[in-house]
Amino acid sequence: MSPDNTIYQIAVWLIPLVIAIVFHEVAHGYVARLLGDHTAERLGRLTLNPIRHVDPVGTLAVPMVLALAHAPIFGWAKPVPVVAARMRHPRRDMALVALAGPGTNLVLATITVLVAAVSGLNLLAPVSIGFVGDNLSNFLLINVFLAIFNLMPIPPFDGGHVVEAALPRPLAAQYARLHRYAFPVMLFLLVILPMVAPRANVVAQVVGPIADTIVRGLLMFATALT
């Protein structure tokens, strides 16, 4: 199948995206279990079976539309349920649970560049490097992007939970109310802001450059090791 084929392009973006998102969500649930909250485990969410995590809109429809539009690929899964009150140190532990997702994505990105280096693949090649190679290349980019994007210090992102844990309790309670606006915040950052104020595009101006720096750093690290 030609790399220019629409189905090919969807496949080499959607497959790595789903895998990255599933690992991200399972990491949240697994760390929550380690810290005392077994909610995700009881609901069967500590599995790598994507069917248990897929959100029809966030995991399938949105990424496919973005792929067809040749726009930056992004998506989300059904959030793994976490009950802070069941953990031993709720505020601290919620921050650790939040960091587990982006941390896992960065670990996956590191493994990817090591595999590519051993295999002699140039993951930043401007042309297709085959179906497996293109999946690995996109897996690297998606994992780093997901990690940095989710660390933004505002709800509903993981970074928002970290900020909430660091704030004094009265301020944290007020800050937590912003979670109800999760979808409008994502819509504003990803769609509206880039359209009305391109220079204020957080994804392009902040997340993108940081992610690019990390990707190149990881590739240099893997090359040095191999």
Report a brief summary of the structure.
By secondary structure, this protein is mostly helical. It contains nine helices and no strands.
Task: Return the structural class.
Answer: mainly alpha
Order of helices and strands: HHHHHHHHH
Low-confidence stretches: none
Oligomer: single chain
- Number of helix segments? 9
Mean of the pLDDT scores? 88
How many β-strands, per DSSP? 0
Radius of gyration: 18 Å
What is the CA-CA span between the terminal residues?
32 Å
Reported for the largest beta sheet, the result is: none
Q: What gross morphology would you assign?
A: globular
The helical percent reads 55-70%
In what range is the share of β-strand residues? under 5%
Features:
226 residues; mainly alpha
Note down, in words, how this protein is organized.
With 226 residues, this protein is an all-alpha fold. Helices cover 68% and strands 0% of the residues. It contains nine helices and no strands. The protein has helices at 6-34, 39-42, 56-68, 90-119, 130-150, 158-166, 169-176, 182-196, 202-225. Helix 1 packs across helix 5 and helix 4 packs antiparallel against helix 6. The longest helix has 30 residues, at 90-119.
Give the topology, please:
Blueprint lengths: L5 H29 L4 H4 L13 H13 L21 H30 L10 H21 L7 H9 L2 H8 L5 H15 L5 H24 L1
